[in-house]
Amino acid sequence: MKKVAVLIKDPEQQYEGLRSSLGMMLYNTWVQMFIVDKEIAHMDEAYQDNMEFLDEMEGERFSNNKTNVEKYGFKYASIEEIGEMLREADLVIPF
Amino acid sequence: MKILYILRTRPDGTVEKFMQTVTNGDRSQVAKLYEEQIDWSKLVDDIFEHDKVISWW
Amino acid sequence: MADKLGILVSSNKHIDYVISLTTAATQKGKEVELFFTGKGVLLTQSPGFKKLVGKAKMTLCDVSFRALGLEGDVPGLGFKDFATQAKNADLIEESDRYVVL
């Protein structure tokens, strides 16, 4: 199973990055999703549902933005810590 | 490990930090697609000659 | 068997990169497969898109295609090439190298 890091920096791509993460997880790929710098821009019901689905499937989600950690349950990771996880990933997909 | 970084746009400070951390003493090379005069044939060779390829934004 | 290059196209900003890399890779005997997703599907409407036909196998995310208000045929793609994100997972698994443009 390949280990893929989905790295989301553009707020407009936050939903697409999550959707793509879920899609890969459904088909035998281990995904770590990272929201870099920005707060989740549109935390609507669809985003919340998909985020919970990612959690249920044991995907991991991290952010260096403390609001994402405190309000939305992301695990905190600094830029350096995210970089270390990217190093361990087989593939990095930026959004 | 040999790492190839592909930059579609000029990197910001975050991308610079990521590249430093990911490289961590390994050999790395950067392909800047936003600059003119890209040798696409060489880029294909580089993609297959490196162990890991990361495309940034 | 030729080395396989998988290209995920998630942006609509770089059709020139997609064409140049695909062309160079096929000229070097590499097998190229492209999956268009998110805003990347907008490139199917670009005049330059036809330059990819015949060079690479191409599929796209049908959800993205419809969500962005697109419809109709796309040059070089058949009915089954309007796919799901499973195609991206396949591409990851099957490609010797995988890049994002």
If you had to describe this structure to a student in words, what would you say it looks like?
The complex is a heterotrimer of chains A (95), B (57) and C (101). Chain A is α/β, with parallel strands linked by helices and 95 residues long. Chain A contains four helices and five strands; from the N terminus they run βαβαβαβαβ. Chain A has a five-stranded parallel sheet, with helices on both faces. In chain A, strand 2, helix 2 and strand 3 form a beta-alpha-beta unit. The model of chain A has no long low-confidence stretch (mean pLDDT 95). Chain B has 57 residues and is of the alpha/beta class. Chain B has one domain (2-55). Chain B contains two helices and three strands; from the N terminus they run βαβαβ. Chain B has a three-stranded parallel sheet, with helices on one face. Chain B is flat and about 30 Å long. Chain C has one domain (4-100): Hypothetical Protein Ychn, Chain: A. Chain C is built from three helices and five strands. In chain C, strand 1 (4-9), helix 1 and strand 2 (31-36) form a beta-alpha-beta unit. The longest helix of chain C is centred in the first third of the chain and has 13 residues, at 15-27. Chain C is globular, with a radius of gyration of 12 Å. Chains in contact: A-B, A-C, B-C. At the A-C interface, helix 1 and strand 5 of A face helix 3 of C.
Q: Can I get a quick summary?
A:
The complex is a heterotrimer of chains A (about 100), B (about 55) and C (about 100). Chain B has about 55 residues and is an alpha/beta fold.
